[in-house]
Amino acid sequence: MKKQKTLRRDRINRTLESIFEYPLTVVEAPIGYGKTTAVREFLASKVCFVLWLSFLSGEDTSTFFWDRFSEEICRLDEEAGMKLKLLGFPVDAPQTATVLSVLNEIEFKENTVLVIDDFHLVKGHQIGAFLYQLVKNQPDNLYITIVTRDTSNLDLLELAAKGLCNIVTQQVLRFTDDEVRDYCVIRGCRRLQYSQHTAGFSENNA
Known about the structure:
The protein is α/β, with parallel strands linked by helices.
């Protein structure tokens, strides 16, 4: 299978260094800005251990999240991952404290990054509330990156005020004129459409 070509955006890679400077980095922009690709390509260029969790639809629940989260933790520490799976998604303060205790006992590899992709599909605030507590009680060597189209289901104000969170906005991710030209060259897409309004890409298959 022919490998898909991707555009190397050095300025975005420099911005994403914040992933290792804050407990939480939020990459927020509408569709077409290359959020997921940018994060994936950046992490592939670094010496780090990546845990990747993607939401697939708006019907995914806290149970789905917890199953996937526990499975990813098992890749690092199978015993801890199974403990988390048995505990279930924390629904109250005591259960949250127990979960955080388990996570803090894990010896995370240096620069472990938990990526949560398509977070805009999450309905409700339960998962965001858990991540809020996880960020405030950051285990050593664990960094969280959320990729999303909006942050309405996240409470970031206090985290940002305390210096625990950095937000990479659509203004930063917006493609420059040079990047637009380079992207069109490597894709060879004559019918590629670039929206000046959203500064994002879409493909015309007509």
